Each structure stands twice: as structure tokens, then as C-alpha cells.
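Anyone have C-alpha cells for Protein kinase domain-containing protein? Sequence:
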Amino acid sequence: MLRGLPPCLLLFLLLCLELEELRASASSDAELLLSKVKPALQGRKDANAELATWNASATPLCLWRGLRWSTPDGRPLSCDAGNLSLARDPGLLLVSIRLPAAGLAGTLPPELGAFSALASVYLAANQLSGAIPLELGNAPALSALDLSGNRLSGPLPASIWNLCDRATELRLHGNALEGPVPAPAGPNTTCDGLHVLDLGANRFSGSFPSFLAAFRGLRRLDLSRNNFSGQPPEALSSRFPPESFQAGNSLDPSLSSPPAGHLSSRGVAGLVIGAMAAAVVLASVSIGRWARRGRSMEMEMLDDDDDAQQQQGRLLVFEGGEHLTLEEVLNATGQVVAKPSYCTVYKAKLMGTSGATIELRLLREGCCKPDAASCAAAARRIGRARHHNLVPLRALYHGRRGEKLLVYDHVPRARALSDLLLLQTITTWPRRHKVALGVARALAYLHAAQGEAHGNVRASTVLVDDMLVPRLAEHALDRLLLPAAAEALLAAAKADGYKAPELHSMAKCSARTDVYAFGILLLELLMGRKPSEDLPSLVKAAVLEETPLEELLDAGMRPAPAEEGLGLLLQALKLAMGCCAPVPAARPTMTEVVRQLEDTRPTRTMYSPTESRSDAATPTTIAA
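Reply: yep, here.
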């Protein structure tokens, strides 16, 4: 009966049968996770701190890190008192796996395709190796897959396009996948719901995958840094910038950069308004009033024709900012909250139906690059970074006169880490460790999954909310600045003690210089002293003078020598000094830093009785 079926359909049916067998062999999602998925992700290395919580006999299911569960009727599983005993309930369904930068060193198990309700898998910035299993493409509910920044190899299985019926994002950036990209073989060849496709920085080869022109829902595409040949079809080259295709590929050299004023050749709406005034406004302003000073505001939807390219300004919108309109942004009411050397920062409230609060950064005249095309390329790189511990860039406005306005998420109830340390608000090591781990995860993600440095790691760029969840701001902003403005950032980093000794120009920022700055930040958390005091030298002097190292620690959190916590603090101090090694090659990677911080996570005995469970736990990192 099966002889007349096409080979691709026959393979699909066989895979489905295999998945059913896998599903039937486990009585619950939790059992399948423990018996198949956990060993595969962990690999042969020592026990992983995140995966160690996947333990049905010791930890309630709702506390297994990086996982989200639901009941059969779709209700999310919460960790209230009534749910702590549900670890072995066969009816609970796994809906999400989120473990980016978690030190996973194994492989992707085929059993990932057997979970009936699994909707998202975020495993970016780990060390997973091997092939992408064919079964993954047949996961019945999977809509978001991020495997960026791993060591995956082999061909891309054609079954991956079986996700087209429901997938919204597919991120495989920065692996070692090779061979041609296969075309969809199933009935759905347009993937209308797929908005993000990132296959950049792999080893794909062969002809350019022209079938992608039929993917009508794509909003972001990256095929750069591969070995493709040929030329992308006009239907794609007119929708996406050249940097989506060119770097590293042998494409037609006739592909040229867009006109200098053309910031968005995508199908995303760009709005044209009158030029914004460059003057700094009073502490409480109506953003719209100063933006329209001296001329009326004109707004219309942009097309990709020549006339539109001559309009007065463009709004380049990134993932998560599609709801923004320039009219709402510029009519927002707000106030000045900070004035760094390169911009003025506003906390603003949108006047539309959402009433949301956003952060606006107006780059100062003479600080940002005047060339629209290079700014757009840099902003796109910044705007594609999505991580729970990063403040995401949602949009960039470029006016006809060169004005540039950056739109970020506003982090509610958050303060800069520098302020919290100054006010002695975070007084225990478990709380400070929680902040350090979140920052480390953000940097590991930027380095491994995005392939770029942050460039300005310091306590003042770490925002910490009232649940002690840190979010790193201002990543890679030096890419938008003129050299003089960028060097001002470097001078400030040097004065404040965060600059790596080998860093003499912001153009030379790297992952290793970020690691050095993080080491200083970690010393700051441990010692409770300003980094301008040259903290590494203080530690070295203590070692030479044989001063007990515990005397270097912040007195407000230093435990008695007999307590378990002192050893963990000294291990963290050793890690911080390793990050501050004078020779860049001797510093660990941020992925290694994350692993070591996970391995030295404070245990419950270090928490004071007054600390709540939500404060005591380090939050699970998620990729957005």
C-alpha cells in the first residue's frame, strides 16, 4: 500500500511512526525528558548545574530550570503550594525549553520531536555538537527554534520545513552546518508564518536558495557568511539589505548598497516626519513638540520606490517593535533621565491605546555617524540581539538632517547596579551572584550567538529590577558613533577602571576585552569598592603581603571562616582575577564564566531567613 507514495512523504510517515514509538515508551513528558533529553544535552562532561534540577525525586517539576509546563487543558503550571507535588503527574505537558548560555555540551536528541505540546526551544550559546535530528522537524507544536552559537554540523535536514505550518522563528546562526539548503518538500512551500530565518555564519554552499523568495512572511533574513554562489532573486534583494546575503558568499558583485537615505528596504512600515530639533530640551518635555519645532509634521507610509527614498526620514523597526508608530513615539510625553556623553535619555509614555512606557535616546549632533547606510547596518546588528538579560533595541529613526533616535524597552522598577551598590541595597552574596550570573549570560549570548562584543560593560549599564533580574544595556552602541565619540566611551572606561590594558581604541573591542570588564564588575560586587581604585592590584598586593583574602571582601556580606559560603566567595574572587588576566588569551570565555558561576551557585544555607524564595533563586535565562 505504501509503494506508490513519494519518497519524501514515505520518509515523513516513517519519522512520525518513530516519534509515536518514542512517545509510547515514556509514560509522561517528564519521564521522556529525564530518560532521553537530559543525558543527550549534558553529554559526557560533569553534571550541569541547570540540568541537575531536572530530578523528579528531589525537585518539584515546576522548579526544573529552563522549562515551562502546562496542564492538559492549556493552563500554565505555577509553583504555588498546590503544585509542588505534581512532579510525576503523567498529564503535565512540556511547552518550552529555554537554556541559552547554560554550558550544555552534548547533542540534540531526536526525542525533542516527540513532545506533543513543545512550542519553543531556545538553546543558543551552548556547546552542542552533532547533527540536527530529522525528527525535530516533525515536532507537532514547535513554533520557535533557536540553536544559534553552538557547534552543530552536517546538513540541514529537509524535514525542518515541516515546521512551516506553525513556525515563526528559526535561528541557526553561528554553527558549522554545511551543504546546500534543501527546499521544502511538503505541501507548505510559502511558510507564511515564518518571520525570522537566520542561517548566517555557517558553511552552507551550493546555489543561492531562491525558494526563499516564496516565504512571504519573512521580516528578517540572514544568509551571510556562508559559501553560496549565484544571485538572490529580486523578490528578496528588494526586501532585505545586501548585508543579508553578501558577506562571505560568492554573489553577483552588481549587488550594491542601498542609497544613503534608505534605511529600510524591508516590507516593514517606515514613517516620514519633519526633522527633529537637535537642541537638548528641558527635563520635562513633550517629545512631539520638540520634534516638530519650526515645521509641520508629515506622516505617510513608505514604499520602496525612488520617490519614497527622497522623503525626510525613516524608521527602521526591529523584532518586537512592529507596533510602534513614529506619530506615537514623537507625541509621547516624557522626561530627561540621563545625559551620557553621546546622547540624551528620555523616559517617555506613548499616547496611543497601549500607553506603554519606552526609553528614547537622542544621539547628540556630532557624535553619531552621518552615513545612513552604515548606521542602518550597525543598528540591524544591534537590533537582532534578543536575550532575557539584554535591553533590546526596538527601532531607529534617522531624520533627513541626520538626527538619530534610538527606541528601547523601558525596564520597570529598575535601577543601575552602580546606584544599588552605592546605596548598599544588595547586601548578600547570593543576591549579587544572581546579578553577576545574569550579566554573564547576556555577554555569553552576545559573543557566541551574535558574534560581537558589548563594548561598554560597567555597573552603570546594568539595570536591575526589584526581582534582582539584571539587564545589560547599551550593547555595541559604539558602532553607531563617530571615532571621537567612541573614544570618549573608552576614556571613561579607563578612568573608571573597566578598560582592558591592551585596548587602545574602541575599534579593537572584542570578547576578551568584555571579559576583562566583567572581571572588574565581579570584583566590584565581591569587594564593594569602586573599580577606579584598581581592584586587581589590590588583590595582588594582598596575595604578596599574605593578607587573608577574605579581608578583601565587602564587610557587609563576608561570612565567618567556618561557613560554607567563604569558599564560594573565594572561588568567585579567583574567577574574577582570571577574567582580569593581563594577557587576553589567558582569560576565560564568557561561556566558561557562566559555567563556573553555575558551579559555584550559593546554596540555601547562605540565604538569610528573611529572603524570599523569588529573591533566592537565580532566574532562568530566556532568548527573545
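The first helix runs from residue 7 to 25.
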